[in-house]
Amino acid sequence: KKHLGLAELEAKVLYTKNARSLNTYGVTFFLVKEKMKGKNKLVPRLLGVNKDSVLRLDENTKEILKTWPLTSVKRWGASPNTFTLDFGDYSDQYYSVQTTEGEQIQQIIGGYIDIILKKQSAKDHLGIEGDAGSTIEEDSVAPHQATYVQHGSSSVGKPHEMSLSKPGIMRPGGEGSKPFGTGHVGAPQYTTLGGQANVGHAPPSIRQTKVTPILTEPQKGLLSTITAIQEKITQYQQDLDAKEMVPVLGSDMGAKKWKQVTLDTRKQNVGSQIAAMNAATAQVVTLTSGPADEIDHTAVGAAITTIGSNLPEITKDVKVIASLMDDTNMGEKLIDATKILVNAFSDLLRTVEPEAKEPRQNLLNAASKVGEASSQVLATITEENEENKELQDMLLSLAKLVANTTAALVLKAKNIASTCEDQQTQNRVIGAATQCALATSQLVACAKVVAPTLHSPACQEQLTTAVREVAKAVENLVAVCNETCTNEDLMNQLKEAAENVTKTLNDLLNHIKLVAPKKATDSVQEHSVEMIYTATEKLSAAAGDTGEMIKQARVLGQATAQLIQSIKGEAEKQEDSDIQRRLLAAAKTLADATARMVEAARQCANNPHDVNYQNSLRRHAEELRDVTIIAARTPALRSKLVDRVQICARRAVATATQCITAAQATHG
After folding, report:
1. Which H or E element spans position 321?
2. CA-CA distance, 268 to 279, in Å (whole number)?
3. For 616-643, b where at least 16 C-beta lie within 10 A, e where not — what string?
4. pTM across the whole model
5. At the top level of CATH, which class does the domain 8-122 belong to?
6. pLDDT score of 347
7. I want to staple 266 with a disulfide (CB 3.0 to 4.6 A). Which of 178, 211, 317, 520 is the partner?
8. What are the residue boundaries of the structural domains of the chain, listed by start?
9. Is residue 597 a contact partner of residue 624, using CB atoms and an 8 Å limit?
């Protein structure tokens, strides 16, 4: 009613004026979700962008909750499911929302910021207050058609005015003075125009907005670690080119022994270092298998640090080994193989960088090359072991067999997907099948990496983890198909294919156990000796408690009886009469000591409060333990103990090498 009688044009002008006065005029809105402060809950919000600022509004009331000037935006980044803004010093933290329209938001903000930058640069233009020769530039930002108009620079050239009164000289403005002679006709002379022509409507230059991805603190830490290692890799390559200086060795026994001990020690170190790096590589493959948002970058960084800390040590040890090798060609071959290994690790690190966004297959290929290169280094420093080679080949064959059976399973799943009525169900089946394929590719890559060092418990653990991932993916695929498939024949085919995958996975696990260091099985003798030691300690500690002392005495009697029978059985199998006689004598000594301990236990039971009988029982039990130490030195038990010592020694050396490497890296 207030505006009745207005002309159409006046009404339109008034409407436009009122619209432009609104706070949300010219704002493009996006419905997003943001995390509530202090709670793990997402709530809907409106995120708005206009030519001056970014706004955060309540979804229901449309109340403006927060406004950030566009001039305060330092960086922004979009992923398929999120959009993040960094306001630098203007805000204490990033503002991140969940949205599938991150690309559109990114384009609009980038366009407006371009306009702001052009406006700022235009302020320095001298002709902006009304230069009639200035050009006009116009930019537009979709979807709300924001327009920016500015003056362009112009410089109009003028002719050079010069005197031509001097004889024999003509001064064309563009080319300078030229001599004028007689007797011939010179080339035609023209007056030139110096300066720049005025281009009235040249199109503005296109400025491409650069979007810098925002990294989280763990991602920054990982990138920093990778960058530091990559910078040092060049130095490691140069170090390998420099020949290691070793003292001149004589031909005496001392020199030969020093050389052999040094070679053995360095080779053991290299084996431990490569095993640790291969296990870390397999761990990187496993840790980076999930969605980018769920990757534990801190754990990945720890694995990368293990690789980086071992690289300088393996470089030093390889140089010493190469210099001490009798065959110079083999030494050079070892250096070349190590260079290839270092380059393989460099390629691997490049694919893991958070900003690289390399395809998953590139990472798996790089990991496989690490396995091949490490195998070549180990083959060069150790004598060819046909048994180990066969075990490695068998491992890779079993891994490929898993891949083949999984491929057949995926085909069966696709057949089921084709029968699904709605697209969502079909996508679920295809997604589960894809996960099976990815987990299998990861398993094959891990197998290639750890195959040369499968004797390492860490490598076995990583490969076993990869096997579990495949088993988990297969189980999930069968469950999804069970829920969606109504065709019994197709379902039976899928289950049969899944059983084949499970069988090949079990074969692979059994092979890992076969390759693992053989743990000495507890024989009757070992078990009996262990029981005697334990029972004696408990009996001595129970002084004053007659009931407990009698209980442990019974355990001692049972253990010694088993040990005596085992020693007699071993004596019967001996062909050497001297060894047989000694074993039987040891069994008799043990039986006599047991009889004395049993008698002391009987007297203690009859006199439970007599301290003297308790002390007598304790003394006879300790005597029985001492006799056991001597009697248990049988050939079978000694052989098992030696095997255990060797296994423990290898593990101790490998662990010590890694501890020293880690300590040196920390100190550096």
Report:
1. helix 297-324
2. 17
3. bbbebbeebbebbeebbebebbeebeee
4. 0.52
5. mainly beta
6. 92
7. 317
8. 8-122, 218-383, 385-516, 524-642
9. yes
